[in-house]
Design brief:
Blueprint (H helix, E strand, L loop, with lengths): L1 H8 L3 H11 L18 H8 L17 H17 L6 H5 L23 H10 L5 E3 L2 E3 L12 H13 L10 H10 L10
Antiparallel strand pairs: 1-2
Helix pairs in contact: 1-2, 1-3, 2-3, 4-7, 6-7, 6-8, 7-8
C-alpha cells in the first residue's frame, strides 16, 4: 500500500515517500542520496528503491530555466491559459481584466487573502468555491466550478502566478510543486473574506 501511495504522488520516490510517511503519522527523511534512512521500516525501504514512473504529458517547459526566466515563462503560460475562451475558464467569468462581475463573480484585483497565498489560491482553482464570500464588503454568491480535472499542476501554477502579478497585483510566484501538494491534500474548507 505504501508503494502504491508513493507512486500516486507523482513526485518521485524520495518526496513521495516522505509525504506518505508524514501523512501516515511517521516521519522518515530520505538520505541526501535518496536512499532510505536506517530507521525506516522495511516496507518503506522497498518503496524508496522502486522507480516511480514519470508523470504523463508534455515535458516541463520550465525545466532548467534560471529563476527569473522561469518566472517570466510561468506568467506567460498563465496569461495564455487565463485567456482561453469557453465555459469554466478564467476570463469567461472574471473577465480579461480580472474585474469579475459585481455581486456574482469576485474580482481578482487588489489585496485579497487568496492572492497572497499560493496554496489557498490553488485550492480555489482546483476545487472551486461553493459558499458565498465577502469581497470589499460585498457578498458574492456565485459558484466557481472546480478545475482539477481540466487543468494540470503546471497550468494552475501558471494561472495563479499570472493573476498574482497582473492588474497591479503583487502576489507570489507559485510552483507546480505547490499545486501538487494542494491537489494531494484535497479540498480545503476555509471561508475567504476580506477584512
Amino acid at each position: 500500500m505504501l508503494a502504491a501511495m508513493t507512486a500516486m504522488t507523482g513526485w518521485g520516490s524520495r518526496w513521495g515517500l516522505a509525504l506518505v510517511l508524514v501523512a501516515c503519522g511517521r516521519t522518515f527523511a530520505p538520505a541526501e542520496d535518496g536512499s532510505p534512512p536506517d530507521n525506516a521500516p522495511h516496507v518503506a525501504k522497498a518503496a524508496v528503491t522502486r522507480p516511480v514512473p514519470a508523470p504523463e504529458g508534455p515535458p516541463d517547459p520550465l525545466h532548467g530555466l534560471p529563476s527569473d526566466e522561469r518566472e517570466a515563462r510561468l506568467r506567460e503560460l498563465g496569461e495564455e491559459a487565463y485567456a482561453i475562451e469557453g465555459a469554466g475558464r478564467c476570463a469567461a467569468c472574471h473577465g480579461p481584466g480580472g474585474r469579475g462581475l459585481r455581486g456574482a463573480i469576485p474580482p481578482l484585483t487588489g489585496e485579497r487573502p487568496w492572492l497572497a497565498d499560493c496554496f489557498a489560491h490553488a485550492a480555489i482553482v482546483l476545487f472551486g468555491l461553493h459558499d458565498p464570500i465577502v469581497v470589499d464588503g460585498l457578498t458574492y454568491g456565485g459558484v466557481m466550478p472546480p478545475q482539477a480535472e481540466q487543468l494540470d499542476d503546471l497550468q494552475v501554477a501558471a494561472i495563479t502566478t499570472y493573476v498574482h502579478g497582473a492588474w497591479g497585483n503583487a502576489g507570489p510566484v507559485c510552483s507546480p510543486d505547490d499545486v501538487a501538494v494542494v491537489r494531494f491534500q484535497g479540498p480545503m474548507s476555509r471561508m475567504i473574506e476580506d477584512q
